[in-house]
Write a sequence for this structure.
């Protein structure tokens, strides 16, 4: 069965610091990988996704993620965070090509940015 | 473009009572999802509809939860009777189709408290 692990539950950074949030999944076949973000008081929304091609994926607001198949990882990065990046970040995986396999979300990482 | 609408936003009930949540997906989206998000966890898929048919309800506690999507548009999720452990945010999401790579668009959620 698929599973997703986000080991950092709460990350606190100062503005301009670099960010890397870890995401590991367990599934041996083809996967589609997502990062969703929930800003305070707002809906969950897509940050970026990977389904094929270049393993380095760029998303909105300067975020990027790298799919490393050998490590079963899809870590989220941003070179310089801003106070407005304060939010909860969820990694998710969906195996295969159809949605016969359900999307599985990690438990989330809360990011707090000190101004 | 209007987003996914949900109501009510908040609901407080006593255990053994019944409750219903409503969702209106983005116009033209064929696939609709209901998730349960317990505090400190990621969203967990309860049921997925493709138009008005159920694609996956393997994680829906069918002894107390039911859902329908009549006419393939709006959907209702019901809990009867509610238990304390049902306290959670219930999220509705929709996507254009049922491909694994499709972006899911989330509504604001309904926060349920069972006393």
């Amino acid at each position: 069965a698929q599973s997703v692990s986000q080991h950092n539950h709460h990350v606190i950074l100062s503005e301009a610091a670099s960010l890397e949030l870890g995401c590991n999944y367990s599934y041996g076949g083809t996967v589609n990988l997502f990062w969703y973000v929930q800003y305070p008081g707002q809906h969950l929304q897509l940050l970026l996704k990977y389904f094929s091609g270049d393993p380095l994926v760029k998303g909105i607001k300067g975020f990027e993620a790298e799919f490393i198949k050998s490590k079963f990882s899809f870590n989220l990065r941003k070179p310089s965070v801003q106070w407005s990046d304060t939010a909860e970040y969820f990694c998710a995986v969906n195996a295969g090509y159809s949605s016969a396999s359900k999307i599985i979300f990690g438990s989330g990482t809360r990011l707090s940015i000190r101004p | 473009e209007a987003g996914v609408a949900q109501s009510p936003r908040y609901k407080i009930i006593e255990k053994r009572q019944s409750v219903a949540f409503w969702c209106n997906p983005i116009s033209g989206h064929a696939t609709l999802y209901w998730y349960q998000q317990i505090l400190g966890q990621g969203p967990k898929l309860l049921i997925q509809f493709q138009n008005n048919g159920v694609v996956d309800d393997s994680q829906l506690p069918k002894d107390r939860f039911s859902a329908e999507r009549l006419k393939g548009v709006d959907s209702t999720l019901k809990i009867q009777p509610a238990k304390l452990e049902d306290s959670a945010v219930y999220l509705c999401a929709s996507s254009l189709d049922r491909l694994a790579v499709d972006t899911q668009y989330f509504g604001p959620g309904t926060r349920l408290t069972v006393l």
